[in-house]
Every structure is written in C-alpha cells, then in structure tokens.
Structure to design on (192 residues):
C-alpha cells in the first residue's frame, strides 16, 4: 500500500470521528482548547490502536486465506464504505427538524471514551484488511492516528462555527474513499 493510498485510507477512517467532533463542537456547552485536544488525542489514539488489533488478529489466519486475500480486503472496505454512506443518509433523515443530542452537555471522560471506541470500530476491520495486503502496520497506525487527530481538531472548530453543514457530507466522503481503495486493491491483484 502506497503512501497516498494510506493517507486517503486514514482520511476515510477519520470521517466518523470528524463528524462526531463537528457535532461536539456545535453542541457541547463548553468546547474550548482543552476539549478540542482531548477529542483529537482520544480519537487519534483509538484510530491508531484498532488497526493494530485487527492486523494482529488477521495475521493468525493469513496463510489460509492468501489465495483470496484481495477479495476479503475489497469486501471489508466496500462493506464499511457502503455502511458509512447508508448511516450518513439515515442520520440526515433522522436529524431533520431535530436539535443536538448533546445540547448543553459537557465532555466527560465516559462520553469521550464511548465516542472514541464507537468511531474506531471500522479501523479494526481495516486492520484485518491491512494484514491481508501485508501493509506496514506500524507506519499505517501512526499515519491513521495523526490524520485523525488533526482532522478532529479542525472539525471541532468547524462545528463551533458552521454547525451541521459538513457533518453528513464527511461520512459520505469517507465511505466513497473506502470503496475506492477496496476496488484498487481488488483490481491490482486481479491484473497482477
């Protein structure tokens, strides 16, 4: 997996955390520098750790699936991408006419940890895909974590200023990127 492909993958994975950060910036009673850094570091940490866990789990059965590894990587990435797009459309329909779920809330450690884990489950499955394509997982985890932290920092500020204007569009973009990377992996293995 090339550097730019890894960057696009990291951006796609960060879109759930980006959307949550926009929402937090928009809805939390207090969302200053401390809260922005807390979200960025927590989301970045979980997005970096989960691919490592998935990669480690996937490495146990790699030899058995080596002949169809590209299909598995494609299937996982396409499934995650389609799910992100579907969830974005559903949340857009559900949010019409509704305010913030977190209106007036404060960013607690419990809320932050729940959001961090919830937004990084996709990264676990991507870690399995990365084991299938024999990617450098430590480099990938660092890139994924750093890009997520950076995008979440920006998203919090965006949420405070622009509200929900970008929230659902970020998840659609992330879904499209994941599907595109899945197709690229599949096609490169079928042509080789």
């Amino acid at each position: 997996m090339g550097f730019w492909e890894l960057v696009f993958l990291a951006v796609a994975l960060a879109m759930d955390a980006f959307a949550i950060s926009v929402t937090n910036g928009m809805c939390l009673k207090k969302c200053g520098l401390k809260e922005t850094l807390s979200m960025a570091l927590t989301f970045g940490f979980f997005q970096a750790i989960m691919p490592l866990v998935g990669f480690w789990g996937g490495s146990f059965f790699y030899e058995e699936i080596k002949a169809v590894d590209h299909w598995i990587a494609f299937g996982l990435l396409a499934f995650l991408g389609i799910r992100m797009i579907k969830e974005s459309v559903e949340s857009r329909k559900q949010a019409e006419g509704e305010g913030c779920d977190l209106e007036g809330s404060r960013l607690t450690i419990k809320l932050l940890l729940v959001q961090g884990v919830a937004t990084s489950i996709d990264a676990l499955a991507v870690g399995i895909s990365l084991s299938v394509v024999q990617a450098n997982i430590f480099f990938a985890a660092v890139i994924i974590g750093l890009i997520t932290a950076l995008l979440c920092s920006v998203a919090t500020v965006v949420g405070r200023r622009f509200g929900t204007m970008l929230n659902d569009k970020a998840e659609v973009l992330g879904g499209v990127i994941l599907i595109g990377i899945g197709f690229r992996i599949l096609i490169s293995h079928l042509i080789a």
Q: What stands out?
A: The chain has a mean pLDDT of 82.
